[in-house]
What does this fold into?
Amino acid sequence: MPTIDDLLNQPGGIAERLRTLREAAGLSGKELAAAAGWAASKVSRLENGKQLPTVADLGTWVSVCGAPAVAQEELGELLSAVRDVHRDWRRRMRAGVAPVQRSYNDLVAQSTAITHFETAYVPGLLQTPAYARRVFCEMVELHGLDVDDVDAAVAARLERQRHLYDTGKQFTFLLAEPVLHWQLCPPDVMRVQLDRLMSAVDLPHVRFGILPFAAQLPITPQNAFQLYDSTAIVETITSELVCSEDESAAYARALGRLWEFAATGADAMALIAAARR
It folds into this structure.
C-alpha cells in the first residue's frame, strides 16, 4: 500500500505539478516564497513531497503562479486522493517506531492547530517518558517489529512536546474519562502521568477537557482521532488513516458536539485528582 510520500512524489503527482507550475511562471523558489509570504524552505518541502499541502497552500501557489482555476481544482482532487489513504502500521514501522514519531514531529511543527480526542491513551504530547515507553513497547510486540528502537522513539516523542510552549500554536485535548482509569502502567507511573495532565490544564494556548462517564452524550465517541489544522488522522490497531477533507470536517463537527459536555478547568482537575487517588 503506498504511503503519503509515495503519492505526493508519484509521476504527475502534487509535487511534480507544483514544480511545473512554478517553472512555467518563470519563478524561482525564493521568489514564489516571497510572493506567498512563506519561508523558502516551505516551497522546497512542497515541491519535493516532504510536506502535505493544505487547500489554502494550493490556492496560494496557483494564484502566485498565475495559473488557471482548473489547476487548483485538479490539485485539490489529487490532495483528496492523497489524504484518503490507509497506512499499514507494520509497513509504516518497518524501520522502527522512532521514524514514525519523527514524522509526527514534522507534522506538529508544520501545523498551527493541533487537536487530540482520545478514548484510550494519554495524548503523546502530554505523555511522561515512562508512559511513552509502555506505549512503544506495546507497539513493538503487537506488530512483531524487527527493529526495537523504543529509546529513540521516546526521545522523539519528548522532543515533540517542546511545541506545547510555542504560543503561535493552539492545542486542544479532549480525553474520555476512561483514559484516566485504564491500568496501562503500574500505579506509580500512572500517578506521575496524571500529575503531568494537571500541569497542562492551565497552559494559556491549550484547551483541555475531560468527557465524563456521567455525561449524557448526543453522539457516541466511537474512536480516537487527531486533527492537524484541517486534516484528520485516525489510528487503529492495524493502520493509520489520513482522512479526506470532507471526512476531516465530519470529525471536527463531532468533536464540537462532544465539547459541549466536557469538564474543563477546576472540574477537569477534580476528575484527574479522583483518578489519581
